[in-house]
Amino acid sequence: MRFILRRMAFYLFTAWAAITINFFLPRLMKGDPISAYLARNQGKVSPESIESLTTLFGLDSDKSMLQQYLDYWGLLFSGDLGVSISNGLAPVSAVIASALPWTLGLVGIATVLSFLIGTSLGSVIGWRRGSRADWAVPFATFFSTVPYFWMGLIVIAVFSTTLGWFPASHAYDKGSQPEWSWDFIGQVIAHGTLPALTIVVASLGGWVLGMRNMMITVLDEDYVTVAQAKGLRQRRVLTHYASRNAVLPQLSSFALALGFIVGGTLVMELVFSYPGVGKLLLDATSAKDYPLMQGLFLVITLAVLVANILADVAYAALDPRTRQMES
Amino acid sequence: MTTLEFRNVTKRYKVRGAGDMLALDDVSFSLESGQTIALVGQSGSGKSTIAKILTQLERATTGEVLLDGKPIPHRGPGLRRYRQRVRMVFQDPFASLNPYHTIRHHLERPLRLDKVVPKDQVESEVMALLERVRLDPSATVDRRPHELSGGQRQRVAIARALASRPELLIADEPVSMLDVSIRLGVLNLLADLQRESNLGVLYITHDLATARHFSDRIMVLHHGVVVERGDADGVILDPQHEYTRALRDASPDPDRHFAGPAGTASLRS
Amino acid sequence: MSLTTAPATAPTDDASATEPQRPRRAPRIGQSFAMFRNGKSLAGLAILGVFVVVAVLAPLIAPYDPLEKDFMALRQPPSAAHWLGTTHMGEDVFSQIVYGTRGVLVVGFLAGVLATLVAVIVGVVAGYVAGWRSESLSALTNVFLVIPGLPLIIIVASQYEDPPLMLIAGVLAITGWAWGARVLRAQTMSLRNRDFVQAAKANGEKLWRIIAVEMLPNLTAIIASSFVGTVTAAVLGLTTLAFIGVIPITNLNWGTILFWAQQNGAFPDYWWWYIPAGLCIALLGMALSLVNFGIDEYVNPRLRSAGERARAARRKGLQVDGGVTEVRTVSGTGDDARAG
């Protein structure tokens, strides 16, 4: 119980910190792009939008900082993130909502896949230490240091332009409309294969190396020796004794690395013109669409937080000590 | 004449989810210069807590520690002066010396910190200290702890404790981490130093035999309570408390020609 | 620890205390660099050294000015005149890579230094103090770990028309210090309760001195590894930022080359334009990782000896897919070296 409360407190604190950073960012920046924009587009922007933009970007400098902060929270609770300048003044929340599922699907599936494959590979390589499997280590090192976006470019050059196996960009064929049909799902899979492959390959190395090192450390523990001395089958020792204990630190580093991974995958969406939040963020950057950028940062951070909570749940499910603490 | 007094000291530790743990329960004793008191008890009896309170690494929950009748200060120059007069030798010589630093560093620091000797004499004082603990000064001074044996390290730790010219020395199981064969050498060294400098020594141990051999008085600690105290021979030969009897019977006694594995069993506390 | 290995630290014979011993002054600097004295670290440092030399001697190595345009040689494949071909403006790609090394290394190391400084201060203090102060510093660290750095950097950098390099390095450092601080906190917490720290405390050493003189030297390996880690992350971050065009193109680095290549339709035909820059990023990252593996193995010798022990066991015809057999037959190598 104590464990859960502590984690809850931590997540609430992190969410608060992210939102507060988001509040202060535009206020610390010099220049005032929003009021310049509003001045240029007088009459086009609705009074409500002006009001929320004013609150979001600290243009209401006649109010006290505290009042601004409270107003800001009020806006967030009503789900109002302002309007997107570069998307025909559509509400930022709606613009993000249309992009978020693509990123969650692609990055979520690819990251979990990469973690599962990498961890399994790593535990086998650690188990067979000293054998030919060790040759995987330098390769894993190399792939773990290749930038995502560059690997994406190479993958496009090879599998799309040269071999023509998969489409190089977008989430589905031009002219299609999102719908629940086998044809459309097939398109989504075809378009998602290359970006997903890139994420898996580029992030696999880190998991392989991390798990291998943990396995080697765990395999020297006495309980593994005892398990083998008892005459348990090798496979059982590997899965129930060694891997089970090595995977716990691996899982916590997964949770902590999420923020970093997400950063890398966002840029990759640009390479594949994938209509997710990453591409949205970069488009917003070049269009100087500050309301959209702020909203995206908030949503991305909260998404990473939710992923962290899920990783925590998985950790608690695997670690008997946390279960004990709860009782 | 220096007197250190432990007066009605109680120490509680907060244990998460399990309430409080009473480590010391109303313990009182006093130690004078020139005197050796053995504090005997099993692991978990509260011996090390007494050492930590005496060095002010921890504070008593209630009760007082008095030096020459005055309560010891908890901070500031007063605490430093106290720490200069009361020094401690730690149990594990493998852990109590910083692996990164040379022996010279370990001995120089207290000399400089307490300004025991003028700066230009620090070097010769370091050598003299090593000489006092029967180490070859020039061969030892520039080595690092991992290049020395356990016994040599513990001698360095003793030299470090002596550097500030303390009046009282707390030796927390000073030989329990050492090989049996070299324990006597270190204990004899401590006894010699005690006589040379008229030190007051609190010898914390779980070993009744050496306690009797090296101390004037013995205190037996059991679950944070002093269950028996008296002059060394009296406590050993005529124990009043049941726990002391059990302790005595569990330790090897040359007079009884005790045969059994108990001697090896007491290797670690 | 293998069952047959005698602990290297076992006290042998106290009589040796009085034996004359060969006086030896172990050089302190040598000890500080012990963690780099292994094949992996040396290989990494060698690659790193090559990049540093290239960056320093860029004007001597590069055959052309990086922005010198030769309109007679547009998009040329590699040749004797242009080792790595030319861009759409006839600029020499090899010269751009050589000069680009400077931007990458300067920003990478600057960010690494700043981040390590913050990591050491926050991590060591959080590890040394106890209670709510430690908890709140730890919470702060975790917040910075969880908040995705790259989007934050993109947003901050995009507020400037021409973000100065120092700002880029600073933001990379702000988003990159947390991992090192976390590791340092854990390590400091374990050091804090060691007897030698308690002894220094009981001697009346001041807090800053205990931290700086007694504890920090024992943390050098961790600090070095967190420095190398942040440099790696900063290099990736910088090239990514340059690639998406947030960093002014006047700051030439490998990411900028990829930005131009992407903008000017280099993919996939003009491979000489985009392959070398990416390979350089990966090679530099690999060099830094190798340095860190070496440090890891220095800190945790099991990693180093595991493969050797298993191979030795296999030579003796033993089954090695586990721990028992080899543990009984082969004496450990790594544990001894580390003792003390």
Structure summary:
The complex is a heterotrimer of chains A (327), B (269) and C (340). Chain A is mainly α. Chain A has two domains: 2-91, no CATH class; 96-320, Orthogonal Bundle (MetI-like fold).
Give the rounded overall mean pLDDT of chain A: 80
The largest sheet of chain C, given as strand count, sense and whether it forms a barrel, is: none
* Beta strand % of chain C: under 5%
Q: How many discrete domains of chain A?
A: 2
First-residue to last-residue Cα separation of chain C? 15 Å
State the helix count of chain A. 13
Number of strands of chain C: 0
H/E series of chain A: HHHHHHHHHHHHH
Percent in helix of chain C: 55-70%
Just name the CATH architecture of the largest domain in chain A.
Orthogonal Bundle
Cα radius of gyration of chain C in angstroms? 25 Å
Question: Which outline of chain C best applies?
Answer: globular
Order of helices and strands of chain C: HHHHHHHHHHHHHHHH
- CATH class identity of the largest domain in chain A: Mainly Alpha
Amount of beta strand of chain A: under 5%
Number of strands of chain A: 0
> Distance N terminus to C terminus of chain A?
7 Å
If you average the pLDDT of chain C, what whole number results? 76
Topology:
The complex is a heterotrimer of chains A (327), B (269) and C (340).
Chain A: H1 2-28, H2 33-40, H3 47-57, H4 65-77, H5 92-127, H6 136-145, H7 148-162, H8 182-219, H9 222-229, H10 234-271, H11 277-286, H12 290-318, H13 320-326
Helix pairs in contact in A: 1-12, 5-8, 5-10, 5-12, 6-8, 7-8, 7-10, 8-10, 9-10, 10-11, 10-12, 11-12, 12-13
Chain B: E1 3-15, E2 19-32, E3 36-40, H1 47-54, E4 62-67, E5 70-71, H2 76-85, E6 86-89, H3 103-113, H4 122-132, H5 137-140, H6 150-163, E7 168-172, H7 180-197, E8 200-205, H8 208-214, E9 217-222, E10 225-231, H9 232-237, H10 242-250, H11 262-265
Parallel strand pairs in B: 3-8, 3-9, 6-7, 7-8
Antiparallel strand pairs in B: 1-2, 1-4, 4-5, 9-10
Helix pairs in contact in B: 3-4, 3-6, 4-6, 6-7
Chain C: H1 28-32, H2 39-56, H3 58-61, H4 93-128, H5 132-146, H6 149-158, H7 165-174, H8 178-192, H9 195-202, H10 207-215, H11 220-243, H12 254-263, H13 271-299, H14 301-315, H15 324-329, H16 334-338
